[in-house]
Write a structure and sequence with these properties.
heterodimer, A: about 375 residues, alpha/beta, Peroxisomal Thiolase, Chain A, domain 1, globular, B: about 140 residues, mainly beta, OB fold (Dihydrolipoamide Acetyltransferase, E2P), 2 domains, 5-stranded antiparallel sheet, 3-stranded antiparallel sheet, about 5% helix
């Protein structure tokens, strides 16, 4: 067990409505989610003393949070810039701060207008907050490798070549996740069926990725309030047992990575499990960052649920569906709920452990695992329990 | 004469990137240049300020072979930059050269969908203007 185990809890969760089309700014949405998390916890927002912004840009700032939440004494703030790994990493930072006695009520928030915000086609705009500008601008862009879909399609090609894994695993992820979205009132793709036929006939954007292997572009924000264990609120606390962040070797270049299948979570997962003092067979459900279907397969393997190349077999026959052995992405994920940079995965983990997941509730859920995945392979993982 | 191609290819910003200078110059001369650590001998690609292996900062350059095998690729059916629109479908290919160096380039050809891992490829140099050249890959039919 680690030094921070069970020292911090998630007491509040907040989500805006997830939509495709909004007049609100990213700043407004993120601040709203933060306020909702305080309200949900039953904690006065003025008493928040830490703010961790797991956002794509540098806004909102800590001053924006102070103003919007009426924070009286902010003792810590940070921005985390590891893309979709930032949310879970932020939760772990909060747990560490609390265990160290630096702060007691920490908001971790993110969100973006991925749909309504201008999706820039100007390559210089794409470089905002992207690591290793030179690699992107001067090697990848001239080669026609411009966006995450394309980076990860090259990684997927190598994965299927090296391991002889069955590409059908990607379809299983897409369809299972969509089934789960139908159980969620706040899922953009809820009520919109996805059949195997539709999946297979959808266009290939970058081989081997079909349209439905790719996460959504949506507008919305989510936040959690992490507090010192013992602070009471509206809900039973969900304890943070352990977690970790990890970075791939090399961290900023997928195609030159000596082992192209290596990921940050390959390092982070064993650390997190050891800290939490749990083994994988004790995990009741997992919310796995799903920017692409293949990214779920790969993380299941690197975490150690199965060996490399075996995830397509691991996920089949309903094993990752609600009611299966290891339900995965019970909220619909980035693929079918909304792309909220993985904070929706954290919120869903908490909801499951509260027993508040409604139709998507995993029976007897006691230990949940949640991951983040960002940029060129940064990984984060947290293990929570009730 | 009227310039009908108003959409330009994304090109490296050679002025802003002194670190890659010898690589850019190499492309102009139809050569592939990579970093070489004078302290530990590590051959490094892409270029970095320090040796990734020994953290030394005494990095030299050496020329590498211009042929290798496809390490990975992806065939693009949608353009995310307007210049690539009329090139669809095209492939982005990472070719592995000697010393484990993998270099990225596009592959434009009618048979793009026949591309496979381990296929032999060789470098081709597109001289876009007097200062800037871009690496692309073509099939190496001599292998």
């Amino acid at each position: 067990m680690g030094n921070i185990t069970d020292k911090a809890v998630v007491l509040g969760i907040g989500e805006t409505e997830y939509v495709r089309g909004t007049d609100k700014s990213e700043k407004q949405l993120i601040l709203e989610a933060a306020k909702l998390a305080c309200d949900d916890a039953g904690i006065e927002s003025q008493s928040v003393d830490g703010v961790i912004m797991a956002v794509k840009k540098d806004k909102p700032t800590n001053e924006d949070f102070i103003g919007a939440l009426g924070i009286r004494d902010l003792k810590f703030h940070s921005h985390i810039h590891i893309g979709g790994a930032s949310s879970v990493s932020g939760v772990m930072q909060a747990a560490g701060l609390i265990a160290a006695g630096i702060a007691e009520r920490v908001i971790v928030a993110t969100g973006w207008t991925g749909y309504s915000g201008t999706v820039k086609s100007d390559p210089s705009e794409r470089l905002v907050r992207m690591p290793a500008t030179e690699i992107r601008r001067d090697l990848e862009f001239p080669a026609g490798l411009l966006v995450p879909i394309q980076w990860y399609s090259t990684q997927a090609t190598r994965y299927f070549h090296e391991t002889k894994a069955d590409p059908k695993g990607m379809e299983t992820i897409a369809l299972t996740t969509r089934e789960h979205a139908h159980l969620n009132q706040n899922a953009v793709m809820g009520g919109r069926p996805l059949t195997s036929e539709q999946y297979r006939s959808s266009p290939i954007l970058a081989s081997p990725f079909h349209l439905f292997d790719i996460s959504l572009q949506t507008d919305g924000a989510a936040a959690v309030l992490v507090t010192k264990a013992g602070i009471t609120g509206n809900h039973k606390p969900v304890y943070i047992a352990g977690g970790a962040e990890g970075h791939a070797d090399v961290p900023d270049d997928i195609t030159s990575r000596p082992d192209m299948l290596h990921m940050g979570i390959s390092k982070a997962a064993p650390r997190a499990l050891e800290m939490a003092g749990v083994t994988l067979n004790e995990i009741d459900f997992a919310e796995i960052y799903d920017c692409f279907t293949v990214t779920v397969l790969r993380q299941l393997e690197e975490i150690g649920f199965c060996a490399r190349g075996e995830a397509p077999d691991f996920v089949k026959d309903g094993r990752i569906s609600l009611g299966g052995e290891l339900p995965v992405n019970t909220h619909g994920g980035l693929l079918s709920q909304a792309h909220v940079l993985g904070m929706n995965h954290v919120v869903e983990t908490v909801r499951q452990l509260r027993g508040d997941a409604g139709k998507a509730q995993v029976k007897d859920a006691h230990i949940g695992l949640v991951t983040g995945y960002g940029d060129f392979g940064d990984g984060s993982i947290s293990i929570l329990h009730n | 004469m009227v310039n009908v191609s108003r959409i330009s290819r994304p090109l490296p910003h050679i002025e802003e990137n002194k670190l890659y200078g010898p690589y850019f110059k190499g492309l102009q001369e139809n050569k592939l240049m990579v970093q070489n650590c004078t302290e530990c001998g590590h051959v490094q690609w892409p270029p970095r300020d320090f040796c990734y292996k020994c953290q030394g900062n005494s990095l030299d350059w050496k020329e590498v072979q211009q042929s290798g095998k496809v390490f990975t690729y992806s065939i693009m059916y949608r353009a995310f930059d307007p210049w690539f629109k009329d090139k669809l479908p095209y492939a982005v290919v990472a070719v592995e050269l000697e010393d484990g160096v993998r270099m990225l380039g596009s592959y434009f050809a009618d048979d793009v969908e026949s591309i496979e891992v381990d296929m032999p490829m060789k470098a081709s140099f597109n001289h876009e203007n007097k200062d800037v050249s871009v690496l692309t890959w073509v099939k190496d039919n001599t292998k």
